[in-house]
Design a protein that fits this description.
There is one protein chain. The protein is of the alpha/beta class. The protein has a domain at about 1-165 and about 195-220 and about 285-300: NAD(P)-binding Rossmann-like Domain (Rossmann fold), CATH 3.40.50.720. About 35% of the residues lie in helices and about 15% in strands. The chain has 10 helices and 13 strands. It has helices spanning about 10-20, 35-40, 55, 80-95, 130-150, 170-175, 195-210, 225-235, 290-295, 305-310; strands at about 1-5, 25-30, 45-50, 65-70, 105-110, 120, 155-160, 160-165, 190, 190-195, 215, 225, 285. The strands form 4 sheets. A 7-stranded parallel sheet has the order 3-2-1-4-5-7-11, sandwiched between helices. Strands 6-13 form a two-stranded parallel sheet. Strands 8-10 form a two-stranded parallel ribbon. The longest helix has 20 residues, at about 130-150. The chain is globular.
């Protein structure tokens, strides 16, 4: 397949490299000339264009089999979200209209769900986020779903929860360093997914997903802040918190250097980085049943335990 990955960042770069290993011809689109050598090193052809500028897209090659839009906003303002996600996706739809791909995958966020009562949410649950940036994401999704219904555009939407992995382990880092503030009594539910499983889910959507469908991408076990703090406290050499219901572990040892790399992404606050910089803490249990049953995806890191253990090891 001829594949175009738009936004080869934390997820997109690994996705592009994975697709090359699977034998596909892969190009990656960035708005700047950065990381060209890194992309070429893993067999990916770098392209430069800005999806927020429609004219620049016209200079790109056409006739892609698969297109994946996993861009992220470098700023968290509503205007930036609208420019990058809504307007950018609209520009892509217009550019691809003359030669539609076989599959178009868009990585959205579980931040579109505004539930705060600890309930289970599925792809059919209401999407009424409180944040203005979350509303932009809903608007972007609706635009793609409309194109799928009216023009048979093969858009598949993946709603991704809080991403962690090498260089990004916000909750683990905070609790290991005794900086993790939890909401009393720590019952807020967090939904997370390892980077490897985000990449795996995208590949599954490309191979088996149906246009106009939505799939939640999150691991098998939503976890409360309290239970997460207790698990971290039970790691070898770490004491349990004195009051596991209200406090985080009291860790004063030298920080693990594996947890120092990378900036604090908003994806590690419990939602995907698409949820916006303005923190709106929700509490819900996002279901991944459809991803597993319809696309047959099997998680490499089924819960935070396997994922965090791999980082700590």
């Amino acid at each position: 397949m001829r594949v175009l990955v738009i936004g080869p960042g934390y997820i997109g770069f690994q996705l592009a490299a994975n697709l090359v290993q699977r034998g596909h011809e892969v190009s990656a689109l960035r708005r700047t000339a950065q990381k060209k050598s890194d992309l070429r090193r893993v067999g990916v052809q770098p392209l430069q264009s800005d999806i927020t500028e429609p004219g620049s897209l016209q200079r790109l090659p056409r006739n892609w089999d698969w297109v994946i839009n996993c861009v992220s906003s470098s700023r968290g303002t509503v205007d930036e979200y609208r420019k990058v996600y809504l307007d950018g996706t609209r520009n892509l739809l217009s550019w691809l209209s003359k030669s539609p791909p076989r599959k178009f995958v868009y990585t959205s966020s579980t931040g579109v769900y505004g539930q705060n009562d600890g309930s289970v949410v599925t792809e059919s649950s209401p999407t009424v986020p409180e944040s203005e940036t979350g509303k932009v994401l809903v608007e972007t999704e609706n635009m793609l779903l409309l194109a799928a219904r009216e023009k048979q555009f093969p858009a598949v939407i993946l709603r991704v929860s809080g991403i962690y992995g090498p260089g990004r382990a916000y909750w683990l880092k905070k609790f290991m360093e005794d900086e993790g503030a939890i909401d009393n009594p720590g019952e807020r539910i967090i939904n997370m997914v390892h980077r490897e499983d985000v990449v795996g889910a995208i590949v599954a959507a490309l191979e088996k997903g149906q246009g106009g469908e939505i799939y939640n991408v999150t691991d098998n076990e939503p976890v409360s802040q309290r239970d997460l703090a207790i698990w971290v406290g039970q790691r070898p050499g770490k004491p349990l918190p004195k009051d596991s219901k209200l406090q985080t572990p009291n860790f004063k040892e030298t920080p693990n250097p594996r947890l120092q790399t990378g900036s604090r992404p908003s994806s590690e606050t419990g939602e995907s980085e698409r949820a916006g910089r303005k923190r709106v803490a929700t509490s819900k249990r996002v279901s991944n049943a459809r991803l597993k049953t319809e696309l047959g995806y099997e998680f490499k890191h089924p819960t935070f335990r396997e994922g965090f253990a791999a980082i700590l090891s």
